Amino acid sequence: MARKVFYSFHYSNDNWRASTVRNIGSIEGNKPAKDNDWETITKGGDKAIEKWIDDQMSGRSCIVVLVGEKTAGRKWINYEIKKAWNDGKGLVGIQIHKLKNSNGDQGSEGSNPFDKFTIGDKKLSSIVKLKKPSQITSQAVYNYISENISDWIEEAIEIRKNN
User: Fold this and answer.
1) DSSP the chain
2) Handedness of CA 143, 162, 125, 55 (dihedral sign)
3) Separation of alpha carbons 125 and 93, rounded Å
4) Cα separation of 127 and 122, whole Å?
5) Which of 48, 84, 133, 154 could make an S-S bridge to 63, C-beta 3.0–4.6 Å?
């Protein structure tokens, strides 16, 4: 049975790349808000956005942060990371900058979004894994993610159980 996960990503920069990962099929992911729906949600302000995120994360066993060039430090990515950890969910990051975007371009590597959080006296990045595909081509990166994402999610859930 496929795990239910929530994908966290920087929408305007990485929507295409995130869609590529979400379409792998071995994982049951949350459905993205359509542009019109998202506009309605955001008009409700921060509380409406928090409620939408909370509702989307409910019933998920793991949060997968798809890390692109500008993911780290974004307000809602940070909210999702903090909520996932506080709710005891598995948490894993996957760098996706080498996947092609809608223009066929690869991006630059972004910072680790888990570096900004501390758990006790440790950085969250020392607990939560950020997977960094070393392949060069977009297709090779896709294949690598496809072959490993299920194991990474299981590993993240196990790490969270032990921390």
Assistant:
1) -PPEEEEE--HHHHHHHHHHHHTTSSSEEPPPPPHHHHHHHHHTHHHHHHHHHHHHHTT-SEEEEEE-TT-TT-HHHHHHHHHHHHTT-EEEEEE-TTS--TTS---PPPPPGGGG-EETTEEGGGTS-EE----SSHHHHHHHHHHHHHHHHHHHHHHHHT-
2) positive
3) 10
4) 8
5) 84
pLDDT per residue as tens digits for the range 46-84:
999 999 999 999 999 999 999 999 999 999 999 999 999
Cα–Cα–Cα angle for 103, 105, 111, nearest 5°?
A: 125
Structure tokens at 82: 């903090």
Q: How many residues does the chain have?
A: 163
Cβ neighbours around 114 below 10 Å, total: 23
What's the token pair of residue 135? Answer: 């392949």
Task: Quote the crossing angle between the two packed helices 35-43 and 45-57, to the nearest 10°.
Answer: 130
